[in-house]
Write a structure and sequence with these properties.
By secondary structure, this protein is of the alpha/beta class. It has three domains: about 100 residues, Probable tRNA modification gtpase trme, domain 1 (Gyrase A, domain 2, 2-Layer Sandwich); about 140 residues, tRNA modification GTPase MnmE domain 2 (Four Helix Bundle (Hemerythrin (Met), subunit A)); about 160 residues, Rossmann fold (3-Layer(aba) Sandwich), CATH 3.40.50. About 45% of the residues lie in helices and about 15% in strands. It is built from 16 helices and twelve strands. It has a six-stranded mixed β-sheet with strand order 3-4-5-2-1-6. The two termini are about 15 Å apart.
């Protein structure tokens, strides 16, 4: 089957790129252009015609990539035409009438690249991350993974486990033969190295996932403290409804921001107070849940009446900034006890000290988002496989000690399999759909 799709964004544009891949690519090009193939990988001016009628669709650039030297590993072509809806629809209508041709599914070109051995699974995921990156730090992380350092590290650990497995299987095949001491020492040292490396990778404070998904900031506090006004101010738009009526915010309202290149998800939450309203009580429950998930909490209180319930006091930990709003209404200095906390005194109404608050948030981000070449995990999928690998290695060690080599070998095989599933070295069909469905059509 030959697939095709628009690879550039939908809507009117100067140029649109239609990508084709599959065994009938050559046939499609000849039918559209009424000419022979151009030279491979050389931009060539061509007229593109409707198939059967020879009516001109548009004039543009044709790129021909014969397989296996192409992105997908198959015969592939790119047609660059003017980006009008009419031109694209006319081109699509012509191609789809050719036998064994169909529109590509989301991510199908990159899925073919993986299946044909052009890229590994980590690189496929990093391509998706690069396409969806909104901040500089997200772009940098995606490029690092694309360059293959993560895959190299996981493959290195996997090769070590395969070598250990070969020694263990030799012991199973020849039970009467004792393994030489140097082999036993090699098994122990290699295994310790793999276990320590995996523990180090897992102990990354989930920075990779934070960069990819966004740093979570929750705005919390009692009703009418100015939480919704704060999220609107930080977003430079009306994200949340602002009202004098207490309890206006019932659900969690989220907005995505870019703060100095760092991806941030800020949540406005329901005001924390005793309430008999069932809907408001559910909103407060969501607030407390979001507080637990947040990387940083902005606890907003009213400067004139900064009353701290036990719940609010519990929120003021090392991952919290106390935001004292409505400072324009203050008639005297704030409580000395409050001054001891990590706080900032602001007035959203008069735009006072907002920059100081943003600076505090930035410093917190910089401390959380430490950039390191050791960050290898960017998705929960990677973390789960590494943790399961570590668990099987611990089981292997226990069984090896009692010389139950048959069962120990199975733990080693499973540990190796989990490492392989990260980079796609084993059958991973069950996870391919979820990965490539995140892509846009045409990639």
């Amino acid at each position: 089957m030959t697939i095709f799709a628009l690879s550039t964004g939908p809507g009117t544009s100067g140029i649109a790129v239609v990508r084709i891949s599959g065994p009938d690519t050559e046939k499609i090009i000849k039918l559209l252009t009424l000419k022979n193939l151009p030279k491979p990988r050389k931009a060539t001016l061509r007229k593109f015609n409707k198939i059967n009628t020879s009516e001109l669709i548009d004039e543009g650039i044709l790129l021909w990539f014969p397989g296996p030297e192409s992105y997908t590993g198959e015969d592939m072509a790119e047609i660059h035409v003017h980006g009008s809806k009419a031109v694209i629809e006319s081109l699509h209508s012509s191609i789809i009438n050719i036998e064994n041709c169909r529109l590509a599914e989301p991510g199908e070109f990159t899925k073919l690249a993986f299946l044909n051995g052009k890229i590994n699974l980590l690189k496929a995921e990093s391509i998706a991350d690069l396409i969806s990156s909104e901040t500089e730090i997200q772009r940098q992380q995606a490029i690092k993974i694309m360059n293959g350092k993560s895959a190299d590290q996981f493959n290195f650990l996997r090769e070590k486990l395969l070598k250990i497995l070969s020694h263990v299987e030799a012991k199973i095949d020849f039970p009467d033969e004792d393994l030489p001491n140097n082999i036993l020492d090699e098994i122990k040292n290699s295994l310790d190295e793999v276990i320590n490396n995996i523990k180090k990778i897992l102990n990354d404070q989930k920075v990779g996932e934070r960069i990819r998904e966004g740093f979570k900031i929750a705005i919390l506090g009692p009703t009418n403290a100015g939480k919704s006004s704060l999220i609107n101010h930080l977003s430079n738009r009306d994200v949340a409804i602002v009202s004098e009526i207490a309890g206006t915010t019932r659900d969690v309202i989220e907005t995505h921001l870019n703060i100095d290149g760092y991806p941030v998800i800020i949540s406005d939450t329901a005001g924390i107070r005793d309430s008999k309203d069932e809907i408001e009580k559910k909103g407060i429950k969501l607030t407390l849940d979001r507080a637990e998930e947040a990387d940083l909490k902005l606890v907003v209180v009213d400067a004139k009446s900064p009353h701290f319930t036990d719940v609010l006091k519990g929120l003021l930990d090392e991952n919290a900034i106390l935001v004292i709003n409505k400072s324009d209404l203050l008639e005297k200095d704030i409580n000395p006890e409050i001054k001891k906390t990590n706080h900032v005194l602001i007035s959203i109404k008069e735009n006072k000290n907002i920059e100081e608050l943003i600076l505090k948030i930035k410093n917190n981000l910089k401390n959380k988002f430490f950039t390191s070449d050791d960050i290898l995990i960017t998705r929960e999928r990677h973390r789960q496989h590494l943790q399961q690998c570590l668990d099987h290695l611990k089981n292997f060690n226990q069984k090896k000690e009692i010389e139950d080599f048959d069962k120990a070998a199975e733990d080693l095989r499973l540990a190796t399999r989990h490492l392989g599933m990260i980079v796609g070295k084993v059958d991973v069909e069950e996870i391919l759909g979820s990965i490539f469905n995140d892509f846009c059509i045409g990639k």
